[in-house]
Design a protein that fits this description.
Layout (H helix, E strand, L loop, with lengths): L1 H20 L14 E4 L2 E4 L1 E4 L1 E5 L3 E7 L6 E2 L5 E5 L8 E9 L2 E7 L10 E7 L2 E6 L8 E7 L4 E7 L1
Parallel strand pairs: 6-13
Antiparallel strand pairs: 1-2, 1-7, 3-13, 4-5, 5-9, 7-11, 8-9, 8-12, 10-11, 12-13
Length: 162
């Protein structure tokens, strides 16, 4: 009977010690709801914008971002982002590869065919409202244009891997 009383107390003590043990002390994003590329201790704000929608046939819709390339660039094939959540939940962010066409960047979504699926991201909570987003795509991302976008929104946060 005493063992049952001691175990919950020991568990609570370990849980309290474990959560107090590590406090995030690295850089913090200056703006909430904007992903920042991490290059060592430097944070680089992703290119924020709105994708415009363009109907492509009966069942397809293109999401277009102006310009052939993002001014935000990283040499990292597996970029890491810091994200402070205020209105956008980090789990709602999808990572998409953009195709360059006609001087713009775009991704085409199809309701009938299986369209592009978001690339894999790992979300880790670092502190209250602070998250680390890591690309988790086996061999990493190929060189090209990419966008993080919240589900159900035309907001885009673009960058280029070179």
């Amino acid at each position: 009977m005493k063992r049952l009383v001691v175990f919950p107390a020991l568990f609570l003590l370990c849980a309290a010690f474990g959560s107090a043990q590590e406090k995030y002390s690295g850089p913090r994003p200056p703006k909430p709801d904007v992903p920042y590329l991490m290059h060592a201790d430097n944070l680089i704000e992703t290119e924020s914008g709105e994708a415009r929608e363009d109907a492509r046939g009966k069942n397809d819709k293109a999401y277009i971002v102006s310009g052939a390339s993002s001014p935000v660039r990283t040499p990292l094939a597996e970029p890491v982002f810091l994200f402070e959540s205020e209105k956008i939940t980090p789990e709602s962010l999808g990572l998409y590869r953009l195709e360059v066409k006609g001087g713009n960047r775009e991704v085409v979504m199809s309701q009938k065919k299986r369209g592009p699926r978001p690339l894999r991201l790992t979300v880790t909570r670092l502190d209250e409202h602070l998250y680390r987003l890591e690309v988790n795509e086996g061999l990493g991302l190929e060189n090209g244009q990419y966008s993080l976008s919240p589900t159900g929104s035309n907001a885009v946060f673009c960058f280029e891997v070179y």
